[in-house]
Amino acid sequence: MRQTINTDCIFCKIAAGEFGTEFLYESPEIVAFRDIHPKAPTHILIIPRRHIPKVSDLTEEDEKLIGRMITVANILAEQEGLRERGFRLIFNCGRESGQEVFHLHLHLLGGRLFNWPPG
Ligand code: 5GP
Ligand code: ZN
Question: Residues 51, 103, 105, 107: which is the catalytic one?
């Protein structure tokens, strides 16, 4: 059976409600909450409740989940007033990307002008 929770993982604990984190969105599969060190006026993390370390661990079975994460990003971007202004969605994957928390998360960033290419 595929692993569902990692007891050492900070995002598993957040998803389980252990810290009383405010969820901007929650469903049986997904939760979203504000990043503790925001890199933009809006910085929200959208995560599956299930412990998946990174993008490269996803399988075809997860396609619906990932699609839903994008839909949640759109819902939250609308709520944050970013639909017209624009926003950035980021998955960091692995060491060279700068991924620090090895529980899959989609960054929703907005409310300022971003550079391209990213640093
Ligand atoms: P990564 O570099 O892994 O893609 O991004 C991890 C993000 O998680 C960082 O932006 C970091 O600020 C955020 N983060 C790390 N620990 C916590 C936490 O305990 N609570 C919240 N809300 N965000 C966290
Ligand atoms: Zn986890």
Answer: 105
